[in-house]
User: Fold this.
Amino acid sequence: DAMVIQNPRYQVTQFGKPVTLSCSQTLNHNVMYWYQQKSSQAPKLLFHYYDKDFNNEADTPDNFQSRRPNTSFCFLDIRSPGLGDAAMYLCATSREMSGQGYEQYFGPGTRLTVT
Amino acid sequence: GNSVTQMEGPVTLSEEAFLTINCTYTATGYPSLFWYVQYPGEGLQLLLKATKADDKGSNKGFEATYRKETTSFHLEKGSVQVSDSAVYFCALSVGTGFQKLVFGTGTRLLVSP
Assistant:
């Protein structure tokens, strides 16, 4: 089945220790997104890639970076995690980013704990 | 700006009860509307969508109708099951170029046997 896969599902890191979360997709979609979701809140878009074009949301902290080496994979790097970065991180894809009704397909998420 | 307002939760129902979760929106332009569902510990799954006025999206017994005159997209199900317990997010996308998903705050549904 075509899908969005996130690894690991649970990640524990220490305060200030860099961490990388990964996402892969078999949908061959052009667009990949990273969201941060804190408890009982809606997902918050951090950035997205359209093909290799990177687009950062204006309020995404510099501490968060992303890489997309090819169509299938996208990585979220947190350079120096703080306690406030503990959250669920969701990866999503969509075939296109404009036009009517291009829904986003979400992965299961990676829950990040910062100790 | 663009925004989505959902009813506060939790919504607590008994199995087989009728469900309505209200969603209204504000948008510049002509949005597409979505309902996503998030089961505990999981990512979001698209439940249904509608792309133009009077469209009805439906899936797994859930329905929502795009009402332009009332700027609403209320989610309904005639008979809920315990397995429907989850958080439901209403969302819209609109605009030319990049269409960002704008989410509501989510409504938690708890269904008891």
